[in-house]
Amino acid sequence: MPLVTEPNRQLPERSQWGRCLLLCDGAAVQRTAKALADRYVVAHHQRPQEGLTMLQMREPNRGEAFLLGELPTASAAVSLRDSNGNTIYGGVVLMHHDQDFAVAAAIIDAVVAAAWTGAEDAAQLITEGWQRLCHEDAIRGALLTRTTVDFALLEAADDDEEDDDA
User: Is the N end or the C end of the chain the one with fewer CB atoms within 10 Å?
Assistant: First the structure.
């Protein structure tokens, strides 16, 4: 997964921040976002939403679309203004069921992206989530490797059966 290098810190790409925050303690994310919201003026650019989203996929052989199922989603888009009148924007769409968490993640997204005061604590949460995500990906990769099927062995068995029939 790609990393973005900032002064003295490595963070995943911004598109991964919400996913990283989902792997952190929800109370810690809410506390950090509240501390940032107390420091800046927060405005919603769209009403935070939560609900179910239908996941559409394409069948690879014929290219026909089909609906795989419903996923819980939450989204938020916010702006933050500091005492000097500077404005920054943040937003997320998460596979999660809590719009309050989405608002907290959007606030963290804005502050870390702009490197405003308070970004260090928020970036630490993203880093913790990134480490958990990398660990989970390593476990999934190991499981995938262990469950890989070698179909060449099946072909060899079919060839042996054909030889026996002859």
Answer: C
